[in-house]
Amino acid sequence: MDAGLATRQVWWARASVQATRIGVIAIGAALPWLPFIVWLGQPDRNLLGPMGRTGVIVTVVLQCLSVVVGLVFVVVMSAWTETRGWQAARIWGSIAFVWGIPLAWLAAVVWPDGVWPRESGLPLIVFGVICVILIVPALINPRRTGLVAVIGTILPLVILVAIIASTISVPAVFILLGPATAYCVAVSLSASAAAFARI
After folding, report:
1. Are 180 and 62 in contact (CB under 8 A)?
2. What does residue 90 show for φ and ψ, rounded to 5 degrees?
3. What average pLDDT score do residues 128-145 get?
4. Which residue, 98, 102, 148, 153, is the most exposed by fewest CB within 10 angstroms?
């Protein structure tokens, strides 16, 4: 093995590290369901209604698919060329923002009923601010691998921690879990692609 290549290989670019990050996201995205599962055993569970049940099913399917796709791509990307890795990092960053739009809309406009008057225009301002935050991974040059890795790790964790904390007082926050999981996995894959391209 070339000595220069060996010095470029770093521990955080290993496939096992990338898969672990996806696993942490999967566990974090599953935790908010615990209060909901407990609630399902209560007599008032029928209040969920047909639309609520459909929402639950769609959310669970989206979460599971996101995690599976994430793990599959971690394995696939580890064998890609450097150029393809940089391209994949940019693409996954853009895909993350696509999922970030419905996440921001649900978090700022749909979900916080009663938090602020809808006619005040504040929900749209909050929506814009969240979108600005969520587009950051798509704007960073993937060749800044360290920064991409940090953001790809910290941003998903912050989002999941915020959702988990919210479930304590608002169990209905599960409507955020589908797009949130998809966004977090896409951001993580963007960081993974940049890491694999780095080595």
Report:
1. no
2. -65, -45
3. 90
4. 98
Contacts (Cβ under 8 Å, ≥6 apart) of 55: 174, 175
**Cα 162 versus chain centre, distance:** 12
What's the average model confidence in pLDDT over 102-130?
A: 80
Burial class (CB in 10 A: 0-12, 13-18, 19+), 105: middle
Distance CA 151, CA 68 (A): 21
Query: Closest by alpha carbon to 111, among 189, 163, 50?
Result: 163
Question: Quick check: 92 and 189 in contact, CB under 8 A?
Answer: yes
The yes-or-no verdict on residue 165 having pLDDT over 50 is: yes
Structure tokens at 144: 């800044």
Alpha helices in 78-121 (DSSP H): 82-105
DSSP code, position 167: T
**In the structure encoding, which two tokens stand for residue 36, read together?**
């909901």
User: Helix, strand, coil proportions of the chain in percent (round to 5)?
Assistant: 85, 0, 15
> pTM for the whole thing?
0.87
